[in-house]
Amino acid sequence: HVQLVESGGGSVLVGGSLRLSCVSSVGYVFSSHCMGWFLQAPGKEREAVAVIDGEDSTGYADSVKGRFTISKDGAKKTIYLQMTSLKPEDTAVYYCAAAPTHRCPFYDNNWSKTSIYNWWGQGTQVTVS
After folding, report:
1. How many whole angstroms separate alpha carbon 3 and alpha carbon 1?
2. Is the predicted pLDDT of residue 109 greater than 70, yes or no?
3. What is the pLDDT of residue 28?
4. 38: Cβ contacts below 8 Å, ≥ 6 apart
5. How far is CA 24 from CA 43, 99, 101, 106, 118, in A?
6. pLDDT value of residue 26
7. From CA 26, how far away is CA 49, in angstroms rounded?
8. Distance separating alpha carbons of residues 111 and 128, to the nearest angstrom
9. What's the pLDDT score for residue 75?
10. Across the chain, where does the E strand assignment appear?
């Protein structure tokens, strides 16, 4: 049973930085699966932020390119989302997710579809003001 647990959220001023972490209860997920970060603002649908796959290929939403960086540490069974130059519109609950595939489907931006991810964390709140 795969469990994903996010941490690192909080309140930060505009222009500030935060680093989110997601720990998996199953180590093999990080070495071989597509994993991503999503956000959900109040009253809005969940949307993709960034992904990293088993080959360390990455993808980013246009809104965060150049500001956010996704990475992973297989030894610690953890993926990270380093967020810099934060804006008020980044305020949301951030979720970690894992897909049952080795590679993320980057074609046609399919990596951004929530339906391909089988496992989700409980979310961590990020507030930028």
Report:
1. 6
2. yes
3. 60
4. 46, 47, 48, 49, 94, 95, 97, 114
5. 28, 13, 16, 23, 13
6. 66
7. 23
8. 26
9. 79
10. 4-7, 10-12, 18-24, 35-40, 47-52, 58-60, 68-73, 78-83, 92-98, 119-120, 124-128
List of residues 6+ apart from 41 with CB closer than 8 A: 89, 91, 92, 93
For the beta carbon of residue 91, count every other beta carbon within 10 angstroms: 17
The two three-digit tokens of residue 100, written as one number: 């049952």
Q: Distance (Å, rounded) from C-alpha 83 to C-alpha 105?
A: 23
* Calpha distance 62→53 (Å, rounded): 18
Here the tokens at position 5 are: 């647990």
Residue type (1 letter), 91: T
Q: Is 26 helix (H, G, I), strand (E, B) or coil?
A: coil
Alpha helices by DSSP H, the chain: 28-32
Least confident of 20-24, 30-34, 71-75, 103-107: 30-34
Residue 30 confidence (pLDDT): 65
Phi and psi based region of residue 75 (left: phi greater than 0; alpha: psi -120 to 50; beta: remaining): alpha
What mean pLDDT comes out for the span 106-119? Answer: 93
